[in-house]
């Protein structure tokens, strides 16, 4: 089973971190605090995060500089960043946020429900990607072990692994399809929609690879709904 996703909360004010924790606790994920940009970068060295909530105004390394460091690192550059900022800043600040690689830019005071809904989308996408990586790892193991199993005349074990992989992938496909419909029905960030579409393409590729390995399979898998 996939472990809980980690969400990185970056703010130099403890009361703001406490408020974020109160808002996001309903998601039942792991919330990690960082009180500075430097502390956030240290946390990103060892842990994987589904999304980062990053305050713009911080002493020392501000949010823009922190985001620039995150996006330069191979390990962390694809993690979604949501900037949180005071409401009195002009459009140039918003542009700087998106230019720094943010997927969203939310002004304070923000609607707790809206923030929680936005974060939940990225958590769901992260969980689906984790499941996809698990299926891919199992498929590699099956392919690597298939030759050895065939050498000793054990054809049943690879077939059983294929069936298990196919069933697990079907469950992920069903969840991803439900998420895609949810994104169609709601007003969400273009980045979330694009990430969901990328996930669907990966699922389609994995399904085709599994179908090609199934003995006696001649047809292609049903097409996965496209995300527009």
Q: Mean of the pLDDT scores?
A: 78
User: What's the N-to-C terminus distance?
Assistant: 30 Å
Return the string of H and E elements. Answer: EHEHEHEHEHHH
Strand content is 5-15%
Content-based structural category: alpha/beta
Low-confidence stretches: 149-156, 218-228
**Radius of gyration, whole Å:** 21 Å
Helix content: 55-70%
Chain-wise SSE layout:
Elements: E1 6-10, H1 14-24, E2 30-34, H2 37-46, E3 51-55, H3 63-72, E4 81-86, H4 91-99, E5 104-108, H5 112-151, H6 156-185, H7 190-213
Parallel strand pairs: 1-2, 1-3, 3-4, 4-5
Helix pairs in contact: 2-3, 5-6, 5-7, 6-7
Structure notes:
This protein has 228 residues and is an alpha/beta fold. It is built from seven helices and five strands; from the N terminus they run βαβαβαβαβααα. A five-stranded parallel beta sheet has the order 2-1-3-4-5, with helices on both faces. The longest helix is centred in the middle third of the chain and has 40 residues. This is Response regulator.
Write a brief caption for the model.
The chain is an alpha/beta fold and 228 residues long. The chain contains 7 helices and 5 strands, in the order βαβαβαβαβααα. It comes from Streptomyces chryseus.
């Amino acid at each position: 089973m996939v472990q809980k996703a980690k969400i990185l909360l970056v703010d130099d004010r403890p009361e703001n971190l406490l408020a974020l924790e109160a808002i996001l606790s309903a998601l039942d994920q792991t919330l990690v605090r960082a009180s500075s940009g430097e502390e956030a970068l240290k946390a990103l060295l060892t842990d994987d995060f589904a999304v980062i909530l990053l305050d713009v105004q911080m002493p020392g390394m501000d949010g823009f500089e922190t985001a620039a460091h995150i996006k330069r690192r191979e390990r962390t550059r694809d993690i979604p960043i949501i900037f949180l900022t005071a409401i009195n800043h002009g459009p140039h600040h918003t542009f700087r946020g998106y230019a720094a690689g943010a997927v969203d830019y939310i002004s304070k005071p923000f609607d707790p429900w809206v923030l929680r809904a936005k974060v939940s989308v990225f958590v769901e996408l992260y969980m689906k990607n984790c499941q996809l990586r698990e299926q891919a790892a199992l498929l590699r193991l099956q392919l690597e072990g298939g030759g050895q199993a065939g050498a000793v005349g054990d054809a049943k074990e690879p077939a059983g692994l294929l069936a298990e992989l196919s069933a697990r992938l079907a469950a992920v496909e069903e969840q991803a399809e439900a998420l895609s419909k949810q994104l169609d029905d709601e007003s969400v960030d273009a980045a979330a929609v694009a990430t969901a579409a990328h996930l669907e393409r990966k699922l389609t590729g994995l399904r085709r690879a599994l179908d090609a390995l199934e003995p006696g399979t001649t047809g292609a898998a049903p097409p996965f709904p496209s995300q527009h």
